[in-house]
């Protein structure tokens, strides 16, 4: 009865299951290539980032994913936001899959109304085109849909396709696919090299270091029922997208030094070689944002025989006194630059070193005034340690704004629901919000598609003045 309750056994089992999945995909890939010469092989992953197998099958030529946006979950913005979908759902998938090997695409993108959700509403007119442009904006190389024709029998009779049940009539989503295809043809005359992007945009490049095993470990031993590892990461990601920053989710095998800023969120499982790489990155001029629950266990999920959390003391310039967890009905407060922010899921009470700056402190607890967030110079770079997880991400947003201002990295201030990306000398602005958004064109730019007043589910594409 204890077998599936042991944290370490569960961790080993999940590693084994992910390895088996990856190995099976590799075997399938090699078998196909044995008989299909000069044939690209991929698989369309569902972007469940914490399941551990995305990008793990190295025999695949490239990775791809599947994305459905409207299926009854109210993750959009406003009264009918569920007709458009979560504004970061495609962006996150792009930023996760693109860094795997640089080439990626979407094998299944929703063509319209589906059948398998709890409630299956019609997408907002223009939403399918918005999703297509969202995939393209993130740097994808292709996009496909499922399916071409709505089936006449079987489980998915109510699943829209590009054409309807007569096999001839183009559906609303099909017409939006057609519109997108024609717009892409137009842009071929205007596009330049893929990496032709503005220097201020590139200067905002930020990595988020991600290892699914951290989620496996923490979610097994949350210590607070309201803790959510992926939601914790999303607080930082959402702010970065509001900055108009290009973001890469990277693994430890990647080169940290490519990024002026790297965020290490709740990276619980760590070892000395990894911490040494973080130190080296910072000493050479990198700027690290490390968040609570990082490096508290070794790779096997064990607590080191040392002071709790002390593996990163030399990196952060802090020691941890203790951590606290509060009931959600009576949250605590953290004060930063005169403003107060609520928290309850996790808070580390820090003992800063002599050269550390204290950026935020706890309020109205028995540890009133004790540090929650610190900033520490190390070599040519810096380490910002965020020992607390806020209610709504507003504290995390202010921390990143302060850091980027300190570093002299200019950022935008896009509202939630509006994202912007660059590729091929083109700027692409996408509006998932419930209100029109007025975008200010960079000086000398030329509008190619849409208008600077971007409606809900609208798209603006402009050409840079190079």
Would you report the number of β strands?
Answer: 21
Q: How many distinct domains?
A: 3
Mean pLDDT: 96
Shape: globular
Provide a count of the helices.
10
- Fraction of residues in helices? 25-40%
N-to-C terminal Cα separation, in Å?
A: 66 Å
The computed structural class is alpha/beta
Cα-atom Rg, whole angstroms? 23 Å
CATH architecture of the largest domain: 3-Layer(aba) Sandwich
Query: Any idea of the CATH class of the largest domain?
Result: Alpha Beta
List keywords for this structure.
single chain; 466 residues; alpha/beta; TIM Barrel; Rossmann fold; Immunoglobulin-like; 11-stranded mixed sheet; 4-stranded parallel sheet; 10 helices
Short summary of the structure?
The protein is an alpha/beta fold. It has ten helices and 21 strands.
Describe this structure in words.
The chain is of the alpha/beta class and 466 residues long. The chain is built from ten helices and 21 strands. A hairpin with a 2-residue loop joins strand 10 and strand 11. The chain folds into three domains: 3-187, Glycosidases (TIM Barrel), CATH 3.20.20.80; 205-407, 3-Layer(aba) Sandwich (Rossmann fold); 418-463, Sandwich (Immunoglobulin-like), CATH 2.60.40. The longest helix is centred in the N-terminal third of the chain and has 29 residues, at 7-35. Pfam families: Glyco_hydro_42 (PF02449), Glyco_hydro_42C (PF08533), Glyco_hydro_42M (PF08532). One of its GO terms (cellular component) is beta-galactosidase complex. One of its GO terms (biological process) is galactose metabolic process. Residues 205-407 form the Beta-galactosidase trimerisation domain.
């Amino acid at each position: 009865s204890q077998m599936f309750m042991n944290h370490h056994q569960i961790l080993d089992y999940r590693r084994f299951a992910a390895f088996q999945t990856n190995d099976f995909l590799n075997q399938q890939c090699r078998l196909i290539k044995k008989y299909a010469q000069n044939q690209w092989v991929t698989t369309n992953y569902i972007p469940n980032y914490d399941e551990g197998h995305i990008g793990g099958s190295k025999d695949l030529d490239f990775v791809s994913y599947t994305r459905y946006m409207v299926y009854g979950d109210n993750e959009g913005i406003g009264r009918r936001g569920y007709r458009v979908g979560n504004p970061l759902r495609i962006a996150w998938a792009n930023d996760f899959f693109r860094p795997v090997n640089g080439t990626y695409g979407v094998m299944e993108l929703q063509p319209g109304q589906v059948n398998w959700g709890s409630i299956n509403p019609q997408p907002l007119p223009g939403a399918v085109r918005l999703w297509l442009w969202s995939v393209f904006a993130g740097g994808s190389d292709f996009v496909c849909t499922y399916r071409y024709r709505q089936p006449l029998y079987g489980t998915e009779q109510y699943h829209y396709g590009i054409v309807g049940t007569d096999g001839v009539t183009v559906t609303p989503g099909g017409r939006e696919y057609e519109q997108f295809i024609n717009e892409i043809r137009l842009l071929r005359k205007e596009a330049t090299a893929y990496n032709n992007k503005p220097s201020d945009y590139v200067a905002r490049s930020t990595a988020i270091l991600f290892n699914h095993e951290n989620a496996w470990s923490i979610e097994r031993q949350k210590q607070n029922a309201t803790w959510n590892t992926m939601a914790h990461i999303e607080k930082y990601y959402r702010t970065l997208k509001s900055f108009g920053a290009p973001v890469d989710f990277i693994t430890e095998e990647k080169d940290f030094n490519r990024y002026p800023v790297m965020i290490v969120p709740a990276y619980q499982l760590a070892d000395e070689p990894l911490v040494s790489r973080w130190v080296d990155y910072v000493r050479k001029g990198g700027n690290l944002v490390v968040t609570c629950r990082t490096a508290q266990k070794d790779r096997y999920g064990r607590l080191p025989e040392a002071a709790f959390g002390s593996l990163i003391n030399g990196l952060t310039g802090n020691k941890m006194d203790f951590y606290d967890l509060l009931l959600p009905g009576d949250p605590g407060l953290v004060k930063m630059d005169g403003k107060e922010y609520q928290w309850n899921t996790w808070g580390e009470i820090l003992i800063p070193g002599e050269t550390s700056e204290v950026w935020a402190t706890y309020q109205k607890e028995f540890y009133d005034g004790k540090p929650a967030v610190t900033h520490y110079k190390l070599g040519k770079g810096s380490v910002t340690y965020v020992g607390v997880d806020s209610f709504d991400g507003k504290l995390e947003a202010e921390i990143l704004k302060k850091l980027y201002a300190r570093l002299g990295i200019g950022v935008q201030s896009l509202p939630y629901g509006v994202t912007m990306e660059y590729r091929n000398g083109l700027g692409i602005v996408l509006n998932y919000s419930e209100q029109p958004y007025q975008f200010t064109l960079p000086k000398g730019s030329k509008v190619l598609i849409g208008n600077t007043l971007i409606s809900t589910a609208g798209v603006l594409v402009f050409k840079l003045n190079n």
